[in-house]
Known about the structure:
- There is one protein chain.
- By secondary structure, the chain is α/β, with parallel strands linked by helices.
- Strands 1, 2, 3, 4, 5, 6, 7, 8, 9 and 10 form a ten-stranded mixed β-sheet that branches.
- The chain has a domain at 29-181 and 245-272: Vaccinia Virus protein VP39 (Rossmann fold, 3-Layer(aba) Sandwich), CATH 3.40.50.150.
- Residues 1-12 have low confidence and may be disordered.
- The chain has eight helices and ten strands.
Amino acid sequence: MRQSPSASFSVRRLSLIRGRGKTRAGRLETVDQWLVCSNLLRSLDSPVVFDIGLGDTPDTTVELFHSIRARYPLVRMYGIDHHAGRVAFAQQHQEQGLSFHLGGFDAGEEFGRAHVIRVFNVLRGYPLPDIAKAHYALGNSLVEGGWLLDGNASADGHVAVALLMQRDGRYLRRRSLLFKVSGSKGFSPVMLRNFLPRDLRGTARHGHPMESFFDRWISAWESVRHAVATPFQSSVETLSETLNIAIKYPGVAIWHPTGGIPQRDGTFQSLVLDP
Length: 275
């Protein structure tokens, strides 16, 4: 499908609003492990990673840092939030390679551009018109070829969904969707729809391309769910016969359609970034 640029934004700053702050250790552990095993960091000697939005405790940021450092010892990671109290508390957990700072979506202006930016359970609280503004600021904080992960996870970490976007010159391409399921509470594709990124929430209906995707996944799931002990993995394997989706890590599937992931309006535009 043809990709066309969207309009650039003249207003660059979008405030990072304070979320509920509730999180728990291990909530994003499987996604972290997939990230380390994927090619997103491309075996860099000293990758730079931003984690945007802290909880009342920095557990998930610290866990991501330790996961990455196990393979990339020279990683530099910045935990960023606009709330002074959360940042001050998190700074008690700083160590070599990991630091916490006041900031927002335009963190690249202060800390230099990142290879990976993770924004989990943050943008779900924003009005829809602000989502593209946030992506624009975050995309401008990426190096060429860098990746942005905009995702949501359930409170217990049972399910998570993330939109994977990549900087490609002046464009932020919507490459893939990540689906994570622990399996501890069973599985149905319907469980994932409420955790779609903010700009795709509710699009699995009303003729949007996401409706067709989930309809096909539900059909694949129904064909295997009574016959196998691993309905998530087995339904993905069945769906992969007709779609470019695959298990990339235990409990993690990546859908990488040729045309990219659609916008909320059903088109396949790519966001135009600064030069």
